Amino acid sequence: MKHLLFFCIIFASAVYGYSADLKRTGPRQTSAFYSYGEITGWSVIVIGEVDSIGVSDIPQENDLKGYIGEKTKLTARLYSNEGVKTGDELFVMDKNNLINGRVKVAYIYKSTSFGYMLIAYGNFRGCSPGERVVQRASEQYSDYAVVHKSRGDYFREKGDDGRAMAEYKKALALDNGSPEVHLSMGEIYLKQGMLQYAFREFSEAKKSLARLYDNEDKYLLFKGMAEIRLREILEAPLTKEKREEFRKDGIAFCKEALIIYPASADANYFLGRFYYKKSMMIEDDDSIARNCFLKVVEAQPQHAGANIALSELYFKHRNREKAEYYALQALKGNPHNSRALEL
């Protein structure tokens, strides 16, 4: 009886795939071609193998008669479910690395016997069981990059900027054009006072601005670039020409940020400072700076920087009453502010 039971287990393992692991028989990354004439091809990741091809129970979208033909349903075994999701476009590749089928994932599930599986519907007449299922390398790398980005965000929230940066760099190694990653790295560099590094990361994020879907991220990007330009003007030894270039850059970045959040105290303050610095150097109209600072104190009545700037502007125009009022407002926010006490 024991021998019979042992035989049944071995037989079930061989027939039904007792082990759920699908072993790789070739390189994970390779090149795929649409025809024999191609030379360079395009980079793909081998993610599984075609298990079976059968008849779909769902009529094809372009089949007006609702005819269900042969080889319209594909089932494939996956090495894992990482980087693959419903709706993804995959490809079937033969032994010569020629693409002979296009797969749009309909379902992904985990089988007790075979591990992760996918089901797709379409025209698979040129495909055969055992052929490799592949994904464009750029698409899967982008998905893996998201994982490292999430880990980086976690460490950043915990205050561990070092480990956060390590994860962000791993994400960029997989998806160098990720604007979210460049933005996060730029914010860390900005916090650390490494302005040139921060601006470089923000500039990389700006190159892929179309991939930033969240308006909050776009706002943070332009606000960050404006802050760097302002700090460079205030802190760095710049030539007159470079100072004016940075001022124009900063104004443009502030305006982009204010398109997204018109009431932003930070963006209005930065914009006011750019015009304010100019108005204090030459006698031009400083009403733009004043209006920006008024928007800031409307949102944050005790904003020290905006109140001091308003006090100086009104003092410049000999309006001592308002100059004193805004100096006192600044002192309410910071009783020990030396400039407010002086005013």
What would a concise description of this structure say?
With 343 residues, the chain is α+β, with helices and mostly antiparallel strands.
Provide keyphrases for this structure.
343 residues, alpha+beta, 6-stranded antiparallel barrel, 7 strands
Work out the helicity level: 40-55%
User: Could you name the ranges where pLDDT drops below 50 across 5 or more consecutive residues?
Assistant: 4-19, 60-67, 279-283
The whole-number mean of residue pLDDT values reads 83
- Structural class assignment: alpha+beta
Shape: elongated
Summarize the helix and strand pattern as letters: HEEEEEEEHHHHHHHHHHH
Write down the Rg: 31 Å
Euclidean distance between termini CA atoms? 100 Å
- Number of H- or I-type helical stretches: 12
Give the total of beta strands: 7
Major sheet strand order: 2-3-6-5-4-7
Largest sheet: 6 strands, antiparallel, barrel
Our estimate of the beta-strand percent is 15-25%
Description:
By secondary structure, this protein is α+β, with helices and mostly antiparallel strands. The protein has a domain at 2-138. Helix content is 52%, strand content 15%. The chain contains 12 helices and 7 strands. The chain has helices at 2-16, 137-157, 161-174, 179-191, 195-207, 215-235, 240-260, 265-281, 287-299, 304-316, 320-333, 338-342; strands at residues 29-32, 42-54, 73-78, 89-93, 99-111, 115-121, 132-136. The chain has a 6-stranded antiparallel beta barrel. Helix 2 (137-157) runs antiparallel to helix 3, helix 3 runs antiparallel to helix 4 and helix 8 runs parallel beside helix 10 (304-316). The relative contact order is 0.06. The model is unreliable at 4-19, 60-67 and 279-283 (pLDDT under 50).
